[in-house]
Every structure is written in structure tokens, then in C-alpha cells.
From TrEMBL:
GO molecular function, one term: mannosyltransferase activity
Segments traversing the membrane: 198-222, 253-269, 276-293, 299-316, 323-340, 346-367, 374-395, 447-464, 495-513
Organism: Crassostrea virginica
Topology of the protein relative to the lipid bilayer: Multi-pass membrane protein
Name of the protein this chain belongs to: Probable C-mannosyltransferase DPY19L1 isoform X1
UniProt entry keywords in alphabetical sequence: Glycosyltransferase, Membrane, Transferase, Transmembrane, Transmembrane helix
Length: 720
């Protein structure tokens, strides 16, 4: 039997016959006290639930209000609303549109599972490739809503004519849930309102009182983002979320389920002896997180490693690890099945890390024979790295999958002089750069970063003190500690996990700025620990602690309110007449089976607004699509026009859209299209004129211009 060391306060009662009556009276008083406690507990829970609903409603209104003020969405025409969904957003919304416009739901589902419009002439299952379950779910919901309202003879939208001025024709604008774009964005904002409710409850649970939830929510709002106006354009800095600007992006649907999943993992870590029912809850949350977003696997991999590190330090035993990892593993396998065997899930670092950790945990009896804790840690760490990388490489080679090779190339380019065409398209985008110094400064001004650093320091001191006392076997009264066996435990295992999780999210954000959308919310969540009596009870009584927290929150509010007011001050109105003119021309002047190629963001718009087949698009995570895009983007290289033409003919293209700004734009040094192509196409780097310049000035004889406005040229490819 495993040796257990428990340290508990025990009370002893004197045995006396005369105390029987007294004990009964005490027992009765205790029963009455418990009844009052249950009543008070119920009122407290109702109060917490009401606050959760309130903050969720506030957040929904907050993000929707910014979205509306930024675009004046309610006054846009149906076409303008679709045009406002640029890049990937337009691609995702197009599949929702396909499902709701099909004669039946099954017909719409069939169209997206056997799609030959998105990567013409190939037929692909976009439900497998693009994580489109949100669009499927919303498509079902919209069709149900519409049919119910029609059967009840209830109107679902109101329409009117909007005069746009400046010589532009009036447009019809409709508002209400019967309008597909309205229904879509309302669903996204409702989901993110629910996310804030769960976030509040998470803060309450983590800290042990309502003040912790208020702190977490307040700091989230204060660090939501801010807007800097420059002479050139508006620069949006999103710290916690960007759902208010880009509702159709995958993270808008997925992130709320990550918060829920982390909540369930935290609850499992706190439970003394969790069952595999906990695994089922985690698995359901994992599936809900993974199905909408291809990047979910990276966040979940860091979680698996964070839980493993908590286990390595002895704060949880093998049983809890297996319960959590079982949930992660079942969720991953279920996602693999629901995504029609998407090979990228099996070749992910997430899958290989789960397999490796399961193996290491199973080897616990063998590793414990080393009898030297540092040696055990070294072996476990080496096995984790070697197993995770090795298993991933073996599976990728066995399945011959190269779709995620660009991920390794991106990280390689971050820390070396390695670059190629595909990595440059990523790393030249600001969101894939290293975390900007300005972000640290902004989080310092709202006192979020100093607060979390203080929490880390206090918690680290507490952990070191606990470890010292365990080593000395002193001053452990009131603590329940099990040092051996599969149910071993130490206090605050959930806090230890969150510290490791924060470290992982910090590393992700520093390397790729886009991933700070994991990091900043986690910083906000950890501020709830300021209200924890376990961590900050040393300040004094509750009144003193809460007074100190109130003062700190007031200081945060000074800068936080300014950030909120900045966001509320954004007033705009979406208008992109050159793109609208292009789309209208395509719909009227080209056959419905005309095939288009061009810049990835524009191709998504062409597919959404015209339904014409396209050969490339912004969803860049597929090796075949990257090869296609490289052929299309040869029009920005220095290759001869004959070679550019042949590349496009290989893809069965009829028309190519030339966006003039792409020929000359340069986001930073080395990021012009000509410079990117010079890395890849050394044969033609000595040329001085880009193909796009020739196409703009004199496309004949390989191409003929059929449309031009201030921004776009449409060139028809000569088929001889």
C-alpha cells in the first residue's frame, strides 16, 4: 500500500454520559444553522447567476455596438454587408449562404461536401478542410427560424431604401434576424456574450468569491483593445479579442469553448478524486473548440504540457492526469471523425504530445526507481520532447502529409535567416510578427501586467515555502498532502496549472503577435486571484483585502475607461465602391462558369458575391492550395508574361484580377512582392520590371483587358 502523509487538524471530544443531551442540542442548532446556510447559499448562487447574465449581456452589447458604429452595418445594402466580410471572413460566410439558399439543408450540405467552386477544377470537402461546423449549425438554425416565422406569418426583417449620395445609386437595406448577415453576426455576438458569462463564473470559481469574477471581467473590458488614429489610417490594437471587427473568423466561434474547457480542467484539478465523467465534459468542450478552428490544436497542446508539468512537480497524481488527458484524447479523436479524417489532426504536435504523455505517466513505477527527483524530471523532459517530435514526424511520413510543414518553416524563419515564398507571406503580415513593445506598455498602463507579476511572485513564494515545509516535514497543519501513489496531491494544483498555462500563452504571444488573443484574456483571468483568501489572506481580514483590491481596481479604471471610450468613439461607414463595381461587372458581364484567379482576399469576395469558380483563396493551411497560390502570384514576380499565362492556364483560369496596389505595396523592408519573389525565383531576379507592371501597362498579346477602375483590372487570358 502506498504510503500516505496526511496533516489535518483533529478535534477530540470528552466522553461523558451527561453530554448526550448537550450534543443533541448542539446538533439541533447545527441543523438550523445548516438550513440557514443552504438558504444563504442558494441566494448567493442566484446572485452570481444574475451577475453572470448581466456581464454577458453587457459584453454582447459592447462588441455589437462597436461593430455597428465602425461599419454602420444596419444601413448597408446586402451586397455591401457581404463586401465588408473581407479575406477569410467572406469565404466562411459564403458557405453559410450556400446552406441557407439551397432548396433543402441536405442539398446545401452536399454542395459544401462536394465543392468544385472553391478550388476549381478540383472537388473538395470544404467541411473537412475549413472547419465549417459553425456555418452548418447556423444554417440549420436559420432555416428553422425562417420556416417557423413563415408558418406563424411573422415578419423577420424590415427594409427601406438608403440614399448613398455622391452620385451612387440608392440601395435597399434590410434589418432583422431574417436577414442572413444579421442572423450570422448576431449569433456570433450572442456566443461571445455567453463567453463573458462563463469568464465571470471562472473568475469566481478560481478566486473563491464574487470579487474575483468582477476583477476578471473588468480587466477584460479595460484591455479589450484600443484604437490609435494616425494621419494615414486607423490602427486597431486588439488585446483580448477582435470579434467586434471580424465576427466570421474561426476564433470568434472557438474561443468561448476554450474558456469553458479550461474551466472544466480547473474543476477536475480541484476535485479530490475525479471520475471519467469529468473526461466526458472535457471531451465535449474540446470537440466544440476544435471543430470551428484549425489552430485549436496548438492551445490544447500547451494545456496538455501544462497539466503534465503540474504532474511532474507532484501537485497531482497519475489518476488526474489520465482523467484530463482522456478527455483531450477522446475530444481529438471525435474531432478527427467529425472532420472526415482530417489528417492534420493526427500529424499535429497535440496528438503526438498526448501519446507521449500517456506513455510517460504509464512508466511512473519504472521512473520512480531512479530515487532522485531531478534525474526523474530530466528523463521525463527528454522523453516528452523526443516523443512529441518523433511521433509527429513518423505519423506525417507514414500518412505522407505535408499540409502543416509551413508551420515549422514559420518558426524556423523566426529564429534564423531561413525564408521562402510561403513563410514570407505569413511573416510579412503584422499579426505574425513578434509581440510589439507597445503592447507591453499598454498593459503596463492599465496595471494588468504589474498585477499578474505580483500574483506570480506571491504564489511562487507560497509554493517555495510549502515545498520547504514538506522537505523539513514541519508547519503543515491544516494542509492535506499525499506524496505518493496515483492520487498524490498538494495544495493549489489548479493555480500551478494556470501558471504553466500562462507561461505557454506568453511564449506563443511573444513569438506570434496574433496569439496574444490567448495570452491577454488569461492575464485578466489570473487577476481574479487578488481576491483569493488562500493567496492574499495574509493582507488581513476580508475587509482589508477587498479594500486593497478596490483601490487597485480604481487605479486600473483610470486608463481602462479611457480605452473603452476610445473604442466607443469609433465612428465609420463601410464603403468600397471600386470593389462593388468589380463585383457588379462580374455578375453581369461574365458567364456563371467563368473561372477567376487573383489576390487571395479578393477571391473570397468573388466567390461570396458572384458565385463564380475560383482557383485560390485565403485558407492557406493546405499544401496544394499554397502551390496554387504561388502559381497565381507569379503575376507579381519578374517572370515573363508567357510563363505567368501558362501558370494560370494550368489552373483552368479564364480571368485574372489584378489589384494594382499589390504590385507596389511594401509593409516593411523585404516584404514587397518583388522582394519575396527574388528569394524564390533567382533565375529572374536580375529583371527590373515586374509582370504585374507589364499586365497593367500592356497586357497584350497573352492577356486582354476587359475591365478597369481605380483599383482593379480584369484581364482575360488568351487561350491560344
Amino acid at each position: 500500500m502506498a504510503a500516505k502523509k496526511r496533516h489535518q487538524n483533529q478535534n477530540t471530544n470528552a466522553n461523558s454520559e451527561s453530554s448526550n443531551t448537550t450534543r443533541k442540542k448542539v446538533g439541533k442548532k447545527k441543523e438550523n444553522k445548516e438550513d440557514n446556510g443552504v438558504s444563504g447559499d442558494l441566494k448567493y448562487k442566484i446572485f452570481i447567476a444574475a451577475l453572470a447574465i448581466a456581464v454577458g449581456y453587457m459584453h454582447r452589447n459592447h462588441v455589437y455596438g462597436m461593430f455597428e458604429r465602425d461599419k454602420h452595418f444596419s444601413h448597408l445594402s446586402n451586397l455591401e454587408r457581404e463586401l465588408s466580410f473581407r479575406t477569410e471572413m467572406g469565404l466562411y460566410f459564403s458557405y453559410f449562404k450556400t446552406i441557407i439558399e439551397a432548396p433543402t439543408f441536405m442539398n446545401g450540405l452536399d454542395q459544401i461536401m462536394y465543392d468544385n467552386i472553391t478550388e476549381y477544377p478540383d472537388t473538395i470537402n470544404v467541411l473537412k478542410r475549413f472547419n465549417l461546423y459553425p456555418e452548418v449549425a447556423l444554417g440549420i438554425a436559420y432555416r428553422w427560424y425562417d420556416s417557423i416565422m413563415v408558418s406563424m406569418n411573422k415578419p423577420t426583417k424590415m427594409c427601406w431604401t438608403v440614399n448613398r449620395g455622391e452620385g451612387m445609386s440608392p440601395v435597399q437595406s434590410c434589418e432583422g434576424l431574417g436577414e442572413p448577415s444579421y442572423f450570422y453576426v448576431e449569433a456570433v455576438f450572442f456566443l461571445n456574450g455567453l463567453m463573458m458569462s462563463v469568464f465571470f463564473l471562472f473568475g469566481v470559481y478560481l478566486s473563491g468569491n464574487v470579487y474575483g469574477g468582477i476583477l476578471a471581467v473588468a480587466t477584460f473590458f479595460y484591455n479589450h483593445g484600443e484604437v490609435i488614429h494616425t494621419m494615414i489610417k486607423r490602427k486597431d490594437i486588439n488585446h483580448c479579442t477582435r470579434v467586434q471587427w471580424t465576427p466570421p473568423l474561426r476564433e470568434s466561434f472557438a474561443f468561448p469553448f476554450l474558456i469553458l474547457e479550461m474551466f472544466l480542467v480547473t474543476h477536475t484539478l480541484r476535485t479530490k478524486s475525479p471520475s471519467y465523467l469529468h473526461s466526458i465534459g472535457i471531451a465535449l468542450a474540446v470537440v466544440s473548440f476544435m471543430l470551428p478552428w484549425q489552430f485549436a490544436q496548438f492551445a490544447l497542446m500547451t494545456q496538455a504540457v501544462a497539466v503534465f508539468c503540474t504532474y511532474v512537480l507532484g501537485y497531482i497524481g497519475s489518476h488526474k492526469v489520465k482523467v484530463i488527458l482522456s478527455g483531450l484524447f477522446v475530444g481529438l479523436l471525435a474531432s478527427y471523425v467529425l472532420l472526415f479524417g482530417n489528417e492534420m489532426l493526427l500529424t499535429s504536435f497535440f496528438f503526438s504530445s498526448l501519446v507521449t504523455i500517456f506513455i510517460i505517466v504509464s512508466l511512473e513505477p519504472l521512473l520512480n526507481k531512479l530515487n532522485f527527483r531531478v534525474a526523474i524530471w530530466a528523463v521525463q523532459g527528454a522523453l516528452l520532447v523526443a516523443g512529441t517530435v518523433g511521433i509527429k514526424i513518423l505519423i506525417a511520413k507514414a500518412l505522407r502529409v505535408a499540409d502543416d510543414e509551413h508551420i515549422g518553416d514559420i518558426f524556423r524563419s523566426k529564429f534564423s535567416d531561413f525564408n521562402n515564398f510561403h513563410t514570407m507571406l505569413y511573416t510579412c503580415a503584422p499579426e505574425f510578427d513578434f509581440l510589439a513593445a507597445e503592447t507591453y506598455w499598454k498593459l503596463l498602463k492599465t496595471i494588468l501586467l504589474p498585477t499578474v507579476i505580483l500574483i506570480i511572485i506571491v504564489f511562487s513564494i507560497r509554493v517555495l515555502k510549502l515545498e520547504y515545509n514538506i522537505w523539513k516535514k514541519t508547519d503543515l497543519e491544516g494542509e492535506e498532502i499525499v506524496l505518493e501513489g496515483e492520487h498524490r496531491s498538494k495544495p493549489h494544483a489548479d493555480y500551478v496549472y494556470h501558471m504553466f498555462q500562462l507561461a505557454a500563452f506568453t511564449l506563443m504571444a511573444v513569438i506570434i503577435m496574433r496569439l496574444k488573443l490567448f495570452w491577454t484574456p488569461h492575464l485578466c483571468l489570473l487577476t481574479s486571484l487578488l481576491a483569493s483568501r488562500k493567496l492574499f489572506g495574509w493582507i488581513g481580514g476580508r475587509e482589508k483585502q477587498y479594500a486593497a483590491v478596490t483601490v487597485l481596481l480604481a487605479c486600473m479604471t483610470i486608463e481602462g475607461i479611457q480605452n473603452i471610450m476610445h473604442q466607443w468613439s469609433i465612428m465609420g461607414e463601410y464603403s468600397n465602391y471600386p470593389l462593388e463595381e468589380l463585383v457588379e461587372w462580374i455578375k453581369v458581364q461574365t458567364p456563371k462558369n467563368a473561372v477567376f484567379a487573383g489576390p487571395m482576399p479578393t477571391m473570397a469576395t468573388v466567390k461570396l458575391c458572384t458565385g463564380r469558380p475560383i482557383v485560390n483563396h485565403p485558407h492557406y493551411e493546405d499544401a496544394g492550395l499554397r502551390a496554387r497560390t504561388m502559381k497565381v502570384y507569379s503575376m507579381f514576380s519578374k517572370k515573363p508574361l508567357s510563363e505567368v499565362k501558362q501558370n494560370l492556364l494550368d489552373l483552368k483560369t479564364d480571368f485574372v484580377i489584378l489589384e494594382n496596389s499589390w504590385c507596389v505595396r511594401r509593409q516593411k523592408e523585404g516584404c514587397g512582392m518583388a522582394e519575396i519573389w527574388d528569394i524564390e525565383d533567382k533565375k529572374n531576379r536580375h529583371e527590373t520590371v515586374q509582370a504585374c507592371t507589364k499586365l497593367r501597362d500592356k497586357p497584350e498579346p497573352h492577356f486582354s483587358r476587359v475591365f478597369r477602375n481605380d483599383v482593379y483590372d480584369v484581364l482575360k487570358i488568351s487561350k491560344w
